[in-house]
Amino acid sequence: MARLEGFIIPQAERVCAQEAGSDVTDRPVGRVNNFRVTPDALARTLQDFLGGSRAALVLENGAIAFDLAEARYTVSGEERRCLLHLWSSERNIVRRVLDAEMKASSLRLSVQRLGQARPTTLEICRERDQRPPSARRAARRVYQARLVRVLERNFAGFSVERIRTAADLEHSFGPVYARGLIHKGQSAFAVLGVNDQETHSSIDAALTFGILWLDVCRQTHGGRMMVEGLKLIVPSGRSGVVRSRMAHLNRGAAKWQLYELDEREDWMKEVDWADYGNVDTRLVQCPQEDAARRRFQSAIERVQALVPHCEVAILSPAAVAFRLHGLEVARARLTHQAGSFQSTHEIVFGIGAEERVLDSSSETAFNSLVRSAAEVRHAEGPRDHPLWRLHPERWLESLVMRQGGGLDERIDGSCLYS
């Protein structure tokens, strides 16, 4: 195996440097360990990374250009070059990829704008917090001091022990969360807070680390005081996920208290975590499945001819998804014909934010994608592979939909829905 800046290049993608005089179909774009790397190998490397980066950020020359949670992309290694096409409702760019380098959780690309000779840098980052380490540390120090001030003001009579943000790998704590203890006499509460500049996932995971911190406090101070429960502090307006999770905790195990902190006003209020009902209500129209299947019959037949065992999910009257064990590999949708008011069917394929129109020229790429997914996405597949790990809930749903009677023989399979 040869490596391209941290990526393994399959044996089939090698072109020995000693064969430089032979007729090579793909023009080499780089040289690693005396092997030439083809545009097709670069395209596969890029697709593998992006396949496991559903919410990555794309930075061009240091500035955020695309958010893959909303944008779409296409990668091709055709015509002797690797092209990356990115588009959203605001921008549309095409770049030729010349080189790729993996660094931590990001992929740094040397790219070339069409019509320009000088390459530029494009970086795809799985980590959404793009602040430099110094800025993160500064924000956390400010929040640490603010948290002490707010605790002293809101819990009169309680003493605030030192609030810390230092990493504690022994107990699985990083610097994201500010942790401490407040006590009055023999009564105490564990305290954990997270500032509003941290990522959504860090804020949503605060309850998990709060429970861990409560356990640490009880073990550490168990002989001197009784740690009654946890005071969890999250940014203002961002307690929804934490609130719904906290509502299912054992109330007899501890006193669970949730607060929202407005960092601009230094103002904190307690949140009623038991009130987790109809906070955000939406009514989704149930599509008529038979009508949708008739509307997309030709598209369904075409995809099932290529992938006989795929699952067909009706998303709406205007869209149908095709899945392999819950992993969406293609979608059929209605689109307007250019220059008319009529609608026609369009089939697109790809994993995550990737989107490519299925036609005669891309059928080979679609077959390759499906074959790769089928080789990985099964019970005995490699669990560290991105395609195996994607959408676990959808995978479970596909099993239930297929074998509902195995859970309970009274379940009517025709009444199951997503």
What does this 3D model show about the protein?
The chain has three domains: 2-125, Protein Yojf, Chain: A (Distorted Sandwich); 133-271, Trna Endonuclease, Chain: A, domain 1; 289-411, no CATH class. The longest helix has 22 residues, at 133-154. It has eleven helices and 23 strands. The model is unreliable at 1-35 (pLDDT under 50). The strands form five sheets. The chain has a seven-stranded antiparallel sheet, covered by helices on one side. A six-stranded mixed sheet has the order 13-14-15-16-17-18. The chain has a five-stranded antiparallel sheet with strand order 19-20-21-22-23. It has 418 residues and is an alpha+beta fold.
Looking at the structure, what is the overall shape?
globular
The share of residues in helices is 25-40%
Largest sheet: 7 strands, antiparallel
Number of domains: 3
List keywords for this structure.
alpha+beta, Protein Yojf, Chain: A, disordered N terminus, 27% helix, 11 helices, Trna Endonuclease, Chain: A, domain 1, 418 residues
Write the layout of secondary structure elements.
Blueprint: E1 2-4, E2 7-9, E3 14-16, E4 30-32, E5 35-37, H1 39-51, E6 57-60, E7 63-67, E8 72-76, E9 82-87, E10 92-103, E11 106-113, E12 120-125, H2 133-154, E13 159-160, E14 178-184, E15 187-193, H3 200-204, H4 206-221, E16 226-235, H5 240-246, E17 255-262, E18 267-271, H6 289-295, H7 297-306, E19 311-316, E20 319-324, E21 327-336, E22 343-349, E23 356-357, H8 363-376, H9 386-389, H10 392-402, H11 404-407
Parallel strand pairs: 15-16, 16-17
Antiparallel strand pairs: 1-2, 3-5, 4-5, 6-7, 6-12, 8-9, 9-10, 10-11, 11-12, 13-14, 14-15, 17-18, 19-20, 20-21, 21-22, 22-23
